[in-house]
Amino acid sequence: MKNTLILVLLLFLSLTTKAQNFNYGAITFDDYEFDRKTIDSNANAVVLKEFGTASIQRDDNTGSLELIFEHHVKIKIYNKEGFKEANIIIPTYKDDTREETISDLKASTFNFIGNSFIETIMDKKAVFTENRSKYTRLTKFTLPNLKEGSVIEYSYRLKSPNLFNFKTWEFQGDIPKVISEYLVYIPGIYNYNVSLRGFQKLTDQKVELSKECLRLSGAAIDCSKITYLMKNIPAFIEEDNMTAPSNFKSAIYFELSDVQNLNGGKTSYTKTWKDVDYELTSDKSLGSQMKRKDVFKDLIPEITKGTTDDLEKAKSIFYYIKKQIKWDNYYGKYAQDNIKKALESRSGNVADINLSLIAALSAANLDAEAVILSTRDNGTVNKLYPVISDFNYLVAKVNIGDKSYLLDATEPLLPFGLLPLRCINDQGRVINLKKPSYWIDLKASQKTVTNYILSGKMTTDGKILGTLTTHSLGYAAYNKRKDILRYSSADEYVEKLDERLTKIKILEHQISNLDSVENVLTEKYEVEFTVNDGSNNNQFYFSPFFINPISKNPFNLNERTYPVDLGAASDERITIHIALPEKYQLLEKPKDMAIALPNAGGRYLLQTNLEEDRISLSQILQFNNAIYQPEDYLFLKEFYSRIIQNQKTEFLLKK
Q: pLDDT tens across 53-68, in order?
């Protein structure tokens, strides 16, 4: 679970030992023989030491201030699975006028051969860069001559023009760390809000005074010299059903609050929501686009023709925008140009599309607002004060009667009122042109629902012939529609499905409501599969768990320190009725079950029976919460374990 601790920067003197970097290349037998059992016996590699330092300095050539960050790491590799830790990627920022640069990069591998450590220095030619996106460049390299037992070491220096976020320091990574230490020098004229995220706590923190660390316009400026230390840090293990790892990894974050000018004034960077509301509603790429009712004024009568109430009107506009403007797969809270151009070109980013939707709804005299949010992979937003860069997405909100609907017109296969799963991430901020902004919960408006119904009969030669009907709703229907429409036709989809289902043969199919996203998606298949090879018709085993069986537990950690986030509550039901060809006796069967999660968090019900030559199964798997807290984790793990164990049993039928 994410814990946030505000660490106020206080200037005070501390009689403590000074933070110090370790010497490069000074490999010891203690490094080579480090016992991983002291921190994690299953680790493939361990960070022995990690030291970083960050400071604001004046560039002598340009006279501008820049951030100087230095990073030094020593890692012990235990086996071949740990070799991947020698693949290093350093992300840097760039734009049209500014960029971060890497210098003084060195990397070495140390192997113990013939009673001494042999150093293999990485060739500079092994370093290359990759432009990942418009604003991100990656520096990549791999350390040479890796062996099981190697110790690797690298260090580099980064120059950055970005002072607002100073430099984040991640104490926690994908392998354990013995020591991670971060030393920062913050000039007295700079005031940063500093927060520690994550489950792990600092081992130590020291604050000292560093005299005259920076000189500006002839004036000497003192610095806060702050050391953050963490020891014996467990690896952060990612599992399914989670939002961005940055929400939960233990790390130090910085946000610039204000700068004291040398002339006595102060420039504030941390703003109130009142300030931000004015900026956003006045912004030509956000608020001004919300006001562009003129773009749709003449179109609305035709779009809403035949509607009888505001909800129908809103739906007709929603589906019109989805059809008219195709998403270019780019996120954003600002329009790229303007919504008129997006409508004319029939293409746009997230903001182009949803700002068009807001303007169209407003043109129809509906109460529409914008909601800015951060997607699941982008992390949660700061609630203590506005940080606009935290937000990377914009959706629409329409208020009809006493109900509100969150809308995203980028996804053709989602129904009215259901946001894409990527948007279901804590809270968003509602931006209204006339009223103050406010927070809103981002929750799925529908459960993920799937019902499977199989009705069939078993032949004397051990085959089952029957009809399998599947009903899907919510994200289950969205994912299924998306899967089907990847193919040129439903027939091609079924053909590929038949190839994947090696034990089940699809004889005929019918798919209903594929394009009617407001309705339940229904698939109907005539199927044939073998449960008995005919070698013994008098007595044979038969597993009833052939529809969406649970064979693997998604929860395998001994402890999980962050929530299980499913995105939406879910309900899956399986009903099977199979008529037998002759009189059979049921010698063995799966145990009937009725188990539940604490606090009505979910349940699993199973009933199987043989009655009047008819085998039946009824199974219900429900998760009533979208999010389960870390304290619920072991209950979820045990819940799945019991289901999996029971599904290993089969019917034993005897004639």
A: 999 999 888 889 999 9
